[in-house]
Every structure is written in C-alpha cells, then in structure tokens.
Amino acid sequence: MSDPALLALTALLLPAVSFLVLAIVAPLRRHGHAAAYLSIALSAASLVTAVAAWRVSAAGGFAERLFSWIPADAGPLAVVGVLADGDSTLMLILVALVSFLVQVYSLGYLSDEALPSLGRYYTYQSLFAFSMMGLVLAPNFVQLFICWELVGLCSYLLIGYWYTRPEAARAAVKAFWITKAGDTGMLVGIVLLWYQTGTFDFLQLLQLADTGLIPLEGLGVITFCIYLGAAGKSAQFPFHVWLPDAMEGPTPVSALIHAATMVTAGVYLLTRLVWLFRLTPDVMEIVAWNGAFTALLAAVLACVQTDIKRVLAYSTVSQLGYMMTAIGAGFASAGFLHLLTHGIFKALLFLGAGAVIHAVATNEIFQMGGLGRKMPQTTIVFVVGALSLAGIPFFGGFFSKEEILGATMAGGFPGAFAMLLFAAFLTAFYMFRVIFIAFGGTPAPAHGVAESHVHDAPPFMALPLWILAALAVGVGIFLPLVRWEAEFEALHWITYAAITVAVLGIALAYLVYQRRAISAGTLATVFAPIRIAAEHRFWLDDVFAGIYRSIILRFSLIVGWVDRYLVDGVLNVLSAWTLMAGDRLRRIQTGQPQDYVYGIALGVIALLVWIRWPR
Amino acid sequence: MGLGAYLTLAAALFAIGLFGVITRRNTIGILLGIELMLNAVNINLVAFARFNADVVGMIFTLFTICITVAEVALGLAITILIFRIRRTVVADHLDLLKG
Amino acid sequence: MRIPVLSIITWAPFIGAVLIMFLARHRPLLVRWLALLSTGTSFVLSLAIYWAFDRTQADVPFFQFYEELPLVPPLGINYQVGVDGMSLLMVLLTSIIIFAGVFASWTVKERSQEFYALLLVLVTGVYGVFISLDLFVLFLFYEIAVLPMYLLIGIWGSSGEIRPQGIFGWALRRTGVGTKEYAAMKLTLYLLFGSAFILVGILALYVAAGSSTFSFLEMEGMQFDRGLQSWVFLAFYVGFGILAGIWPLHTWSPDGHASAPTAVSMLHAGVLMKLGAYGVVRLGLGLLPDGTQEWVWLVGAIACVNIVYGALSAMAQTDLKYVIAYSSVSHMGVVMLGMATLTETGLNASVFQMFAHGIMTGLFFALVGLVYEKAHSRAIFSMGGFGQMMPGIATAFTVAGLSSLGLPATAGFVAEFMTFLGAWQSTHPWWLFPAVIGAFLTAVYVLRVTKQIFWGPKAADPHFQHLPDAQGPEWVALVLLVGTLVLFGVAPGIAIGPVDTATLPLLLRLGGAP
C-alpha cells in the first residue's frame, strides 16, 4: 500500500464504517461503551493510515482517486473521491489525531452520561471525523461543499448534544443558521465558478489558473462568495457570533470542532485555493483586513469574558483572524502553519479547560481560583497551552505566529500588522488573566462544590492532555530547527516585537490579577467605553437577532397573512359570490309542482311564439 | 269527420288536463290531469296514423299506453307512500323541493 | 408471451380495492393485509422494472415495457402504456409512498375498509397517469386520481381553526374556512377546474393532429402550429400547474394537506403534486417545444415566487401540518424552476426533486401523523422536548428536515444543487438567487420547528410528559422512507442515470443546448 490516495481513502472510510455501524445497529449504540470503543478503535486505525498516507505524499505531487457521483450525458457532472498531497494529508493527520484524542478524552469527560446518549455522542463523533476528512481530502468543490455542510451538521448536532438545555438548543440552531448564511454565498460562488470554467475539479482549475485560462471578469464576485462561506465557517467578522455560543456543547466537542478542526476549514479552503484568490487581489485585501479586524475584535472581547470556555472561543476567533490575515497578505503557508499549531495547542487548552470544568463543575473563572495546587498536572498542561497561544519562544504558537506577523508585514499591510501586534498583546493578557484568576490565588469562597472533590483528571482525560502538551512543546522546539521554506524575508525586529508584546501582556496580567499591583477596577474604569461595548459583544448578536426577529420573522408573518387572507381571500370571495348567487336563485324553486307546470307551459308558449314569429 | 275535429278534441282534452294539473290541490287530481294530457297525445297519434295511413303512430300509442299504466302505478304508489308518511296528499303541503 | 408488468403494477391496487370491498367487511386486519399485498406487488414489480430498465438507449425517445390494447379504434383511443426514465422514477416513487402509506395509516379506525379501498383506487389512477402514452387514457386516470380525494378528505379528514379576518373576512366566514369539508371541496373544485384546462388542451391537440389519434408517441412526431402550441402550453401549464401548486393557484394545497388524513397527505403531497409537474414536462415540454420556449420565462418566474413565498408562508404557520404543506409549495417551485431552465442539469434536477420531495414530504406527513396520534396536537409552540420521548420519530423528522433544507447526503441536496447549476446556465440566470434564498429560508423554518418540537426543553403541558415512540408497522414506513432519502442522496446516480435518458431527447426536441 504505497498509493497515498488509497491510504487516504482508507483513513476516510474507517470513521464512515464506524458511523454506519453505530447508526444502523441500534443495540450497539445504546450500549454506549461498546459504541465508544468501536469508534475509538477505528479512529486510531484511521490515524495510523493517515500518517502512512502523509509519509508517502509528503514527497510532493498529487494522487487522486475519483468516483462518478452525478452522471450526465457528457461525462459525470460531479465526482467524489480523494485528493492526497502534502497539505491535505498533513491536515488529515491533524484531524485524525485530535479526533482520536478527543474521543479518548470523552470517555472520561462524559462518564456520567446516560448510555444511549453516549452512543449517540460517538455516532456523531464518527460522522464528524468522516466528514472532516472528506472535506480535507476533497478533490473538487462538490465534495468540499458536501463535507462542508456535513461538518456543519455535526457541529449543530454536537452543540445541541444537551438539547434539553434551552441555551444549547438555541446555540445549535444559531450556529447552523449563521454558517448556512455564509454557505449560501459559497454555493453561489461555486455555481458561478463552474459556469465560468466548466469544472469543479481543483487540479483542473489549478491548471487553468496556471495557464491564465480562467476568465478574470466577475472572478472577484466568485472568490468573494467563496470567502463568505469560509468566513461563516471560520467565524470571521461579522459571522463570528455563533462560535462563542457554540460553547454550550460538551467541552471535548469544543476542542475538536470549534477549535482544532471544523472552524479552521475556512482557512484550509483558502489555503487550498490561494492560487485562485491571488487572481483577485481586491478580495485578498478584504480577507486580510477583515482577518486582522476579527483578530483584534475577538481579542478585546476575550478580555472581558468570565466563562473560561468563552475566553477560549473568542481566542479561537482571534487566531482564525490571524490565519486569514496571513492568507490575505498572500502567504497562505504561514496561515496553514498556524492552523496546524493552533489546532494542537487550542485543543490542549480546551481539553485542559474541560478537565477543570469536570472537576469544579462550573465555567466561571471567578468561581475557581487556587486550582494550581489542587490540579498540578492540569495546570502544567494548561500553562503550556497558554504559553503557546501567547507566542512565547519554544512553544507551539511562537514560530507560526511570528510567521504570520512577518507575512502580514511582507505582504504590505502595516496597518493590519499593527492590529495583529496589539491583538498579540491582548492574547497574552487574556490568557494569563484566566490562569492567574483560575489557577493562581486562593479558592473562591462562594463556590459551592465540596473542595475535596477537586482533583486532577482521570487517566483517560490526562493522557490526551499530556500527548497534546508534548506535541505543543515539541513543535515549538522542532519547527525553528527545520528550515521552513519561508516565502518572504521576515524583518528581524518582528521577532523581538512579538516576544516583547507577549511578555508585556503576561506581565500586565500578572500585575493585575496575581500581585494586584494594578487594580482591575482601575483598568475597567479607564477602558469603560470599550469594556461596556465588549460586554455587550459590540451589539452584533443583537443585530443578528434583530434581523431574524424584525425582518425575517415579521416579513414571513406578513406573507403568511397575505397568503391566507388576500391570495386565498380572493378565491374565497369568488366562491362566496357563487354561494350568494345560488342563494338568490334558489328562491325561484317554490317546491310546488303547479308552479313548475306553469313554467313548462309558459316555456312552450314562448317557444311557439319564437318559432312562428314573422321575421 | 276530418282530421281537424280529432285534433280539436285532443287539444281540448290536453287543455282540460293542463288546467287540472295546475289548479288541482289534490295529488290524485294532478295525476288524473296528467293522464288526460297523455291521452290527448294518444288521440293525436291515432288520428294522424289513421289519416296518413301509417301504422307507426298506432305502435307509438301502444307504447304510450303501456308507459301511462306504469306511470299511474308508480304515481299512485308514491302518493300512497307520501300519504302514509306525511298524512296528506295536498300538493301545497308537499314542498320538499323548495329551495 | 410477455408479462404486462406495467398493467399489473397499475391495476394491482385496484384489484386490491375490489377485494377489500367484497371480502373484508368487518375484518379490519384482512383489509390491511389485502392492501399490503396489492401495494406490495406493485412495489416489488416497480423495483424489478427499475432494475431491468435498459439505461443505454439515450438517443431515441424510448418507452420500455410497452403494452397496447385498442379501446375505441374509430376515435383513435388506445390503452398504450410504457415507461421512460422519468416515468420509471415516478412509478418507483408512487410505489414507495403508497407502500409506506399503508403502514402509516395502519391505525385508521373509522370505516377502514372504505378508506383503504378509496386509497388504492386513487393509486391506480396515479400509476395510470405516469405510464399512459395515450392522452385520453391519461386524462381518465388523472380524473381517477383526483376524485377519491374528495371523500378521503371529507370523511376521514380533520378540521382546523382559522379565524377569518382582513378585507375578505366575510368571504372566508361564508365559505367555512378551516373545516375538512371546506378543504375537500376546495381541493376537488380547484383540481377539476384545472382538469378542464387539460381536457381542452388535449382535445385541441387531438383535433390538430387530424382527429385520428390520442397517442403521445404519434403526436410527438408532429409539428404543431406555433399559435396553437402557445395557448395549449398555457392551458397545460395552468391545468397541471394547479396540481403542482403554482402560485397563486396553490391555496388548495395547504388546506387540503392539512385536513387530509396521514396516508392521503403523504400520497397527495408526495405523489399527486408530482403528477402536475410530470404533466407539464410530459405534455408541455414533450409535445409543445415552441410553446415551452415562449412561456418558459413565466414558468420560471412563478417558480421563483413559489420558492420564496412558500418558504416565508411556511415560516409564519403555527400548525405543524401547515408548515409541511407550505414547504411543499416552496419545493414544488424548485421542481418547476428546474424544468424552466431547459438545461440537462436543470431538467434532471427537476425530475430528481420530484422524487426527493415526494419521499421527503411523504416522510414529513407520516411523522406529523404519528406525532398527532401520540400527542394529539399539531400546535408547534405548545409542544416541546419530544426528542427525549420519541427519539425515533425525532430523528426521522430531523432527516426529513435536513433533506428539505438541502443538506448533502440527502436527496434534497442533489436536486437543489443541480437546480442552482441549471438556473445559472439558463437564459434567466437571476433565477439562481430566489432559489438560493429559498434554500436558506427553508433552513430557518425547518430548524426552528425541529428545535421547538423535538430538540429543545420539554413543554410544561402535562399531556406531553409520557409519549410513546413509533411502534410496529409505523417503523416500517419510517425506515423505508428515511433509507430511500439517504440512499438517493448518497448515490444519486441510480436515479439520474435513467432520468437522463429521458430528458435528453426532450431537450433535443426543444432545440436547446443540452
């Protein structure tokens, strides 16, 4: 088995098998644990296959395996299959790895769940793994869109996993609607692109792009539409509002879907299509600026959150903004690199947060405090994740974040660069704000849970944490050593600037929340307008709610009323008139036979007169 | 006697029958009126057959007589049924067809 | 001797109906078994012909399993039947829906003998329309398919409540809106009104073809006068279009579907509405290429109205059955839009959407029926949290909903996606946008309803605390329909392959680029 496409196909189909078995064989699903073991076993096998596929295809080149999907007279209209190359198999590994680790972790995290419910969870997980891998390996736009929607479906299902909680049910629907709005744009883009070029296939499109055969007229609209889909999935402004709410799902789900894999699909898509986007520099500029703006906006929002998962969620939005900026600046490889490292350390952070939540049964950081002593292992891995995110040297995020900053500068976006740099400062600040509040200090007095219960995570949960932490550190040390083929000349001062702002951010957090040298209250007063705006999430959620309630729902009520009382009303008027005419006419019928005879006689006479009338 | 005399008789008979149907309040009377009208037609048919030397008219008359018998039988049966149900055979009271 | 397989498929339900009327008085179980046996025969044979259908003949209009029997030779009326790829799929759809429908109405208590007999007669009519190649016979079958509806809704239906208001409120009060009798009467009158147009159109073609044949196959070879084509196409469009729920002649459909009993809603929304669309394609596009070209802008524009208007109306409803009924109006717009594109992709999408929507809406109505039977409510906003109590029904409803909003891996996606492609290829590319907006609006109302009823917190109402899931025969219907929906979504080729052999000749005749 040295055909990477075949290996990738196997990796793709293993979770599909798991999903099908669990979906069809109800007793297995209801057993819960059996479902979990099956899903984990197949996802481990999938991981191994993915690594094998990567080893073969890392050398370069493309390997495809295609199957006709929608037939048409002149060759199939749409095909499905796999396209294995260096990037896609690398992403495949990330997906398979995080998916596997999260599934293992969930065994511990969801140990209190009812068994059928656990089976349902692993069914969704398998479906997600399959769809995400299908997305990663998609050889054309059709399969990409199919899997794109399917991961959206899994996201919807898993956010609403605890659907009896009203917030979870609402968040699930919200996530689906907002990403669907973006996807609608993307679908239009795909249709238009197909009309322009006559193909969905990435490789054929790449060839066309290389030979300059893609008509440039109207291409900007197409790439913008595709970007809309990516922005919806990757939570770019203004579509980012769904991601923080998506934290209603179980924490492992947040780690897998809403941090490491699915939300990065938009970034991945743009990385794959960067040759197409390069043809439309205007759209690239939008991508870059919107990315930088999103990064900064989300970083500000993260600073005022008190829910540990929401901090991480906004941080994810912010980091996605970073990646988008790099792609927009023209250096997709930097964005892709950050995607990979971010996938690892953000999964680590979420799983760490999950361990904390599992132990203390609350999301509020102000109800935690002093966890450092009670959960030393968790603290260590969480700090590793935070350092990676903040961009401290020798940790995972440092190198990739610096690459992005360099790329932004090199791409000619100093303004965006400044925004990103400031966002980097805020990133370090808000992450260590969480650490100093939750892990440092003293236990919060108001907390109701018996303190003795707070302990480190059980082995099922601890193992994935340590693996991810090791990877985060390993990547941090390993990456600068290998020569990453940089596409640009990074300025030297950027490295120092990046380190400086990160350290400054940590220092500020330390002074405010650990040493309390600077009062948090003072900070709050100084930045009152921003703080208030951020606490209201810049009113963006209200805008979306307003669009939904005041425009869509109200308009639908009007249309519904018009249909019932006007369109159908006209019809009823016609039938009412018929009924009324009948009412008038029936008076003629007296029911007296003699009257009818009169009628007949008169009729006969009239007929005779008419016939004999001299004309 | 010429054809005109027969036709006059038939016309008179028909007019009497029609008058009966219209003015009679009793259902049986109405039925009798209908009988008169039918027989007026029969006279016409027979007269025409006789004067035109065509036997078809006679045959038609036989048919008419048969049908008349059936009609009277049915009509009387209905009347009796109505009487049993409604306790009346006065046509004015039988206005089920009134719209 | 060849087995007249199409006639067996068509007449098996009719024979079943006769047997039920004569043999099964006061034996409700026997009624069901007879119904199952007769529809099962049709179902199995439909699968068999679907399997045996020759898919290689793409170049000539080619009707397979052809049968012929002279009925009134002097007038040129013959019993001619045969299927091409398009009617093949429709026959399969009918078989699946009625087979599932027999299971879904297993619990009908009142006069079940007459109920099943009428249902089976109706199905014979539907099969007949799909396979007839003689316009006169087609019209006969069409009437057979329409008329039993009146009794089925009028006797076994359910009444709702609609408060008359607005400037036409007096008229609504006068007509008794909301009752099942009203719905039955409205539906029947509307459809008969439409069939008058169809009859006029058929007779006009008959006269124009020399008053010697009603045969579709012979008419297909003729070139009718342009002016004639123009108005006959309009007649067919209005006549069949009423049944397909074109705006603004769609208002029979929400009332009719909401009042009808479960199996009748399934059959009506699932199959009979397709009859209308099928009629427009078969007789309109098939016989009147010039007329089609002339009026296609109207067909497409009204389809766009249907899509968006239907979706918005569905969103405004508070009665679950009305939501589904309006969603049919919206989805039939997709069918008509695909047809109006006059492209290979669009036409295939149109036929595929007929199938996909038939299965999907059949499933929807089956589920609404089950929910009603267990919770005795259709008021969306009084229910809640049913997902815990009836996971099977909830899951099936979610699958149907996802298919309805065009989620990949369900049949709905394939149809919508191809419609979009076809729309942009057509001469009126702007049709793409209403279609896409409609798809998004569908996501809004479907998920809203799904969340409210199934995947949300439990309702406070004490009646909704302990409800059973689907049981016994009901499962058969659900599994069959969900399975079909997913199977055709994952492997659309099994349907589009044969359909393509039927649509290509149509397009060649239309002179459009395939």
Provide a descriptive summary of the structure in words.
The complex is a heterotrimer of chains A (615), B (99) and C (514). Chain A contains 26 helices and two strands. With 615 residues, chain A is mainly α. Chain A is elongated. The model of chain A has no long low-confidence stretch (mean pLDDT 87). Chain B has three helices and no strands. Chain B is mainly alpha-helical. The mean pLDDT of chain C is 88. Classes of the chains: A mainly alpha (615), B mainly alpha (99), C mainly alpha (514). The interface between A and C is large, with 60 and 71 residues.
Which H/E pattern describes the elements of chain A? Answer: HHHEEHHHHHHHHHHHHHHHHHHHHHHH
Tally of helical runs of chain A: 26
Assembly category: heterotrimer
In angstroms, what separates the terminal alpha carbons of chain B? Answer: 50 Å
Indicate the proportion of strand residues of chain B.
under 5%
Largest sheet of chain B: none
Number of strands of chain A: 2
Put the structure in a nutshell.
With 615 residues, chain A is an all-alpha fold. Chain A is 75% helix and 2% strand. Chain A starts with a helix and ends with a helix.
Question: What labels describe this entry?
Answer:
heterotrimer, B: 99 residues, mainly alpha, 3 helices, 79% helix, C: 514 residues, two-stranded antiparallel sheet, globular
Summarize the helices and strands and which ones pair or pack.
The complex is a heterotrimer of chains A (615), B (99) and C (514).
Chain A: H1 4-24, H2 26-31, H3 33-57, E1 63-70, E2 78-84, H4 86-109, H5 115-136, H6 141-159, H7 166-197, H8 202-210, H9 219-233, H10 242-245, H11 251-260, H12 265-272, H13 274-277, H14 281-303, H15 308-328, H16 332-360, H17 371-374, H18 376-390, H19 396-410, H20 414-439, H21 459-481, H22 492-514, H23 520-526, H24 528-535, H25 540-585, H26 593-612
Antiparallel strand pairs in A: 1-2
Helix pairs in contact in A: 1-3, 1-5, 3-4, 3-5, 4-5, 4-11, 4-16, 4-21, 5-6, 6-7, 6-11, 7-9, 9-12, 9-14, 11-16, 12-16, 14-15, 14-20, 15-16, 15-19, 15-20, 16-18, 16-19, 16-21, 18-20, 18-21, 19-20, 19-21, 19-22, 20-22
Chain B: H1 3-23, H2 27-52, H3 56-86
Helix pairs in contact in B: 1-2, 2-3
Chain C: H1 5-23, H2 28-52, E1 64-72, E2 77-83, H3 85-104, H4 112-131, H5 135-146, H6 148-156, H7 169-175, H8 180-208, H9 216-220, H10 226-244, H11 252-259, H12 262-287, H13 289-316, H14 320-340, H15 344-375, H16 386-389, H17 391-404, H18 411-425, H19 432-453, H20 473-490, H21 493-510
Antiparallel strand pairs in C: 1-2
Helix pairs in contact in C: 1-2, 1-4, 2-3, 2-4, 3-4, 3-12, 3-15, 3-20, 3-21, 4-5, 4-6, 4-12, 5-8, 6-8, 8-10, 8-11, 10-12, 10-13, 11-12, 11-14, 12-14, 12-15, 13-14, 13-19, 14-15, 14-18, 14-19, 15-17, 15-18, 15-20, 15-21, 17-19, 17-20, 18-19, 18-20
